[in-house]
Amino acid sequence: MIYKVELKAPALSEFANLRTQIKWQNPDDETLKASIRNSLFWVAVYDTDKLIGTGRVIGDGAMYFYIQDIIVAPSYQKQGIGHLVMTHIENYLSNICSNGATIALLSAHGKESLYTKYGYVKRDGDALGLGMCKFISK
Known about the structure:
Structural class: alpha+beta
Number of domains: 1
Strand content: 15-25%
Strand order of the largest sheet: 1-2-3-4-5
Largest sheet: 5 strands, mixed
Order of helices and strands: EHHEEEHEH
Shape: globular
CATH architecture: 3-Layer(aba) Sandwich
CATH superfamily: Gcn5-related N-acetyltransferase (GNAT)
């Protein structure tokens, strides 16, 4: 199947709906809108006019880049859409990253193999530490 790929952010409602499909909670619309707007790079994949996959890069645009929101609608998973998204992200990063830049991501449990195919490594806790995160709930 051939999908339409756009290298721009999806509409807020489309993005929120896709997040809901995979059971991620959405913040309020203003927060989501700011997050979309402040991203460095977007990939949006459509089946005709239906958003079925996304991915984006956030960060400072110089030293640190973070891959975020690699999402594929449940009914479209295991069809190569995640790889399609990652290929566009990797192309972007290879063109923009300088020597010494760091690219990071948090993988959903069980999805690590998608990223290892692109050279990302699991942090083993020894040389690099395990990494940490904090979720804010108000």
